[in-house]
Amino acid sequence: MQIAVIGADTKIGQMIVNSAEALKIRTVSVVSSYISLKGDGKLVVKDYQDLKLSDFDGCHVIVDAVSFLDITRYSTDLLPLWTELEILKNTDISLLCLGSSAFLYTDKSKKRFVFDESDVVINDEQQKVDRLCVNAYKRLSTCSNVKWGIFSPPLFLDDHSIGSGNYMLSDSVLPVNVNGTSRISVNDFVKATIDILKQGIKTRDIMSVCQN
């Protein structure tokens, strides 16, 4: 398998590259400006709006680690995601977007997004980020000619703890563990992302994950 990671210079993107290569998965690191990167695979340094299908020759999956996770960095209309959808339409290359808990559902009835619940709003800035993510997801969901899927973190993506290595994969409903928390460490989120890549992406579907 060969994957490309868009945003390989971000913390999560770099970790995915390193974890994939440790498992002998070939990588292409895609960044918008040159920095010192670890990893042994091909490096593509290009403004994301200028990406072309030929940049992903030999790739089976593209992992987008920036469009949702760093959404305020871009104008809504300039998300890397829209370029990816354009160049991947009617191809066999799958797209895995690392998403947001904002557009996970609150329960199995799948009538309300987490974003719609006032009791999970942390602050105004987070509400802005979540709104942007929900709007981008709604636009993405209308795309039917690309093999896209989303892997969303739970409510809290913990950047401080090492993690336990124990997590449970979930569908599009916000995952909550037996202790009533919806949390995972960045380390374990990356491990779970690699698991999703190995298992295969569910086309036009959302999956999530939570610490056990």
From TrEMBL:
<protein>
    <recommendedName>
        <fullName>NADH-flavin reductase</fullName>
    </recommendedName>
</protein>
<dbReference type="InterPro" id="IPR036291">
    <property type="entry name" value="NAD(P)-bd_dom_sf"/>
</dbReference>
